[in-house]
Amino acid sequence: AAARRFRATLDDIAGAGQLLAGDVEPRPAATTARYVLRLAAKGALERAGSAVDLIVRDRTGGGEIEIDPDLTAEALRRLVVNGFQHGAAPVTVTASLEDDGALSIEVRDSGTAFDLRAIDPEAPLDGALPQSGRGLGLGLGVQACCAAMGGRFEIARSEAGGAVARIRIPGAAAVAEDLRAIA
User: Fold this and answer.
1) Which segment of 13-27, 65-79, 91-105, 123-137 scores lowest on mean pLDDT?
2) Which of 60, 44, 123 minimizes the C-alpha distance to 94?
3) pTM of the predicted model, to two decimals?
4) pLDDT exceeding 70 applies to what percent of the chain?
5) Axis crossing angle, helix 140-148 with helix 2-20, rounded to the nearest 10
6) At what angle do helices 69-86 and 33-47 cross, to 10 degrees?
7) Is 142 left (phi over 0), alpha (psi -120 to 50) or beta?
8) DSSP string spanning 137-181?
9) H helices then E strands: how many in the chain?
């Protein structure tokens, strides 16, 4: 078990390094939010938490969207694992489509003591340390995944005091609709 955790940590570091170095090109594909949510949940549960402590909601209507499923699932996996490790269960993931066709995914933990000053989600991707001075900051890997797809990542304190993180990928539904019209 220790060897698996160590390998998973090394894989995370290598993956984050590739993302931050810009060595990963997005590969958009027609998929569904449900598929991406399942992929991310599986990866997250292999690392932390339990299935009874993860609530996943797909409010996209089940239609096709055009995103990079691997990059999106990786960003989401990192947020769910972080929710389990640094927040409190249950962790809730909700995917929805905004009016402009953007895919929005929210990850919310049930903690009550989230300190926004302990992280820096706006840290630059140029290798500079975050202003908080505490490591690389939560979300550099998530931010890099989102940036590669033209999206964005935000994190804030929820009304209850835990963390709420949001990924937004623009044009996910609109692009899928355009591709169906061409086919």
Assistant:
1) 123-137
2) 60
3) 0.78
4) 79
5) 50
6) 40
7) alpha
8) -TTHHHHHHHHHTT-EEEEEE-TTSSEEEEEEETTHHHHHHHHHH
9) 5, 7
